Every structure is written in structure tokens, then in C-alpha cells.
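pls design
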């Protein structure tokens, strides 16, 4: 069902007051002068970092339910380590892209998952979990060396393409826009 945009029909962008990045212009970490270019790049790159919805059909030894159990476990691990949301989104993306390209056996699925978490944590976190903690969280099913070897395998298979336009990045952006839009309409309605 299409969204009702009748409230927006007469709305026109009128400059900085409508700019969702205006309040961040003095923060160099927000790189507001590049944000439009960044999101345009994200939109164009989105297709190349997504997988076919039915990619699990190509897996001989694992199925969608096993993947779901793995992701549920990774959510728990993510919460236990108090990682940022971006880490979880990137972890799942790495898993999906790897599984779309490589057949994985059931005993190696958790290894792929914990390795994806390690890669994503190194990319997104200031203090990623230590390797020994990841070994422990897997109940010592895999050694440090096995995780490090799998890290190299996964990164090579993904051609070191770790920077992705995640759903989280778009959600944060759209929520900022929605908040600004609601604030503008509230001010307009009361005047």
C-alpha cells in the first residue's frame, strides 16, 4: 500500500533549517560536507553487497533453520559483549555473503559465525572481543588458530569487501529525517 504523502504535498526544501545534518556541522566526526555523497554511494553499492534471498537453497549441509539458530546465538553473544548495533548487522551480512559463495558443513557453521563476528568487531568496535573470549563463547569447539585461519578464508572469499551499506546506516538516516519532519510539521501546525 503506498504511503499517504498528502501532508508533504506542499512542502519544499527551504535551506539549512530543513537540513538534518545542520546540528552536526561543527563535529568533524560527522563529516557533514560528505554525507550526501556517502549515502548516494551506499545506494549504488547496496546491490553488490546483497545476496539472493534464496541463496540457502545452494547449501547442501545446512539449511535456513540452522542459519537462524546461528544468528539468534550471535545476537546473544553480541549483547553479552555489549557491541554496537553496526557490528551485528555487519556480522550477519558477512555470514550471508560468505554462505552465498561457499558450501559450509554443519560443524563449521558456528566457526563461520564467530569469525564473522570477529571481523565485524575489528571493523566497527573500538575494543573488539579478544580471541580467547570468542574461543570460550564457542565452548572451545574451535581454537584461536582455527578462528584466525577462517578469518583469512572469509576475507579472501569476500575479496576484503567489508565496508557495506547496512540497513542500520539507512535506518539511522531515515529516523533523523523523520524526527526533523515531525518537528517541522509540529511547529507549522501550532503557528
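designed seq:
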Amino acid at each position: 500500500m503506498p504511503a499517504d504523502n498528502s501532508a508533504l504535498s506542499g512542502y519544499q526544501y527551504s535551506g539549512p533549517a530543513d537540513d538534518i545534518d545542520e546540528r552536526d556541522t561543527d563535529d568533524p566526526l560527522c563529516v557533514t560536507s560528505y554525507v550526501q555523497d556517502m549515502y548516494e554511494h551506499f545506494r549504488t553499492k547496496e546491490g553488490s553487497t546483497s545476496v539472493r534471498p534464496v541463496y540457502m537453497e545452494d547449501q547442501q549441509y545446512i539449511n535456513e533453520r540452522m542459519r537462524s539458530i546461528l544468528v539468534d546465538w550471535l545476537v546473544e553473544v553480541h549483547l553479552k559483549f555489549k557491541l554496537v548495533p553496526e557490528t551485528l548487522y555487519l556480522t550477519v551480512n558477512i555470514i550471508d555473503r560468505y554462505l552465498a559463495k561457499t558450501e559450509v558443513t554443519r560443524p563449521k557453521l558456528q566457526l563461520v559465525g564467530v569469525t564473522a563476528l570477529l571481523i565485524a568487531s575489528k571493523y566497527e568496535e573500538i575494543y573488539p572481543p579478544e580471541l580467547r573470549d570468542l574461543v570460550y563463547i564457542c565452548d572451545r569447539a574451535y581454537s584461536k588458530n582455527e578462528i584466525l585461519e577462517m578469518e583469512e578464508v572469509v576475507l579472501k572469499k569476500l575479496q576484503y569487501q567489508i565496508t557495506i551499506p547496512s540497513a542500520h546506516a539507512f535506518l539511522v538516516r531515515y529516523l533523523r529525517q523523520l524526527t526533523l519532519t515531525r518537528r517541522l510539521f509540529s511547529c507549522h501546525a501550532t503557528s
